[in-house]
Design a protein that fits this description.
- This protein is of the alpha/beta class.
- The chain has three domains: 11-41; 45-152 and 274-297, Rossmann fold (3-Layer(aba) Sandwich), CATH 3.40.50; 156-265 and 307-334, Response regulator (Rossmann fold, 3-Layer(aba) Sandwich).
- The protein is 48% helix and 17% strand.
- The chain is built from 13 helices and twelve strands.
- The strands form two sheets. A six-stranded parallel sheet has the order 2-1-3-4-5-11, with helices on both faces. A six-stranded mixed sheet has the order 7-6-8-9-10-12, with helices on both faces.
- Helix 7 links the parallel strand 6 (172-177) and strand 7.
- The longest helix has 33 residues, at 4-36.
- It is globular and about 60 Å long.
- Residues 1-42 have low confidence and may be disordered.
Amino acid sequence: MPTANNILNSQNNGLQSLASIVPVVFVLIFALCAFIFPTSLHAEPADKKILIVSKKTQGYSLQLINNLQASLIASGYQSQTLTLASENKIGALELLKIKKQDLIISIGSLSTQLLLDEKIETPILSALIPRHVYLSLKKSYPAKRNWSSLLINQPIDRQFHLITAVLGKHKDIAVLLGPYTKDLNKKLNRASARTSHKINIEEIKDSGQLTESLNSLNHSVDVLLTLPDPLVYNKSTIREILLSAYRNKLPIIGFSRSYVKAGAIAAIYSKPEQISHQISDIVSDYFKTNRFKNKKYYPVEFSVALNKNIARSLGIKLVSDNAIIKQIKKAEKNK
């Protein structure tokens, strides 16, 4: 029969054996958790280095960079800015700094192209990129996988919701498409059907066709919807388009705030702080999975610019921009 001392010795030996096993068990459990829940073990924001790269640092771009820098730092990231010195290539010291980052945020088309030219492995998120530039770069750099863009263009359906909010349903809408937007033909037709409008599309191959196309549309439609196509809408054509439309009492829906100042009755655009907020959200999502959810993003938050003087001269009574935004958001939510 075992004595009390034998029992105690046996218990002590058992506890010692258990003590030697416990650390091993914890290591195994920790490793298993790391395998099953990898995102929970990601580095904190303070461990992530983000570089905002740009070429142009004035106006809207500068406002965006300042807002974004403040937002990223407030979120705990190590964030710096870099203004590229050369128009043609990235310098050796600049490239060395870029390669040390966990994520690059490129502001504008030129800086994005220069970064893609270097074939760096650092992930890139581009902002203020026109849709046609994004498509061109995507075609030119098919091997770049960890790259995404927040486009400057607003979603097509949102433009039609704007027309509904400003002019009502069942309108005949004219659209002039150039070489950079002609691929939107099907999307425009689908969007017009979804929003209870009709659409008249004219394709323009060169600027010489612009006057003829405008004349053919002016008397048969209710509104001209403009899309950012450099061949159709540029500094040399904008005056002719605005004057022709105004003479024929044809309201124009612009694609930028400046177009409204020039004579369009309304436009949807996103403010620098709205774009900055969305970029911060994309960055946060990226570091959770180390990949971008989408190859391209459209602006989520938006504002509306109105030219009430032009609208009044055309006999159009505009409600407030807040009322229009509210109606557009409701339409987007219910689609």
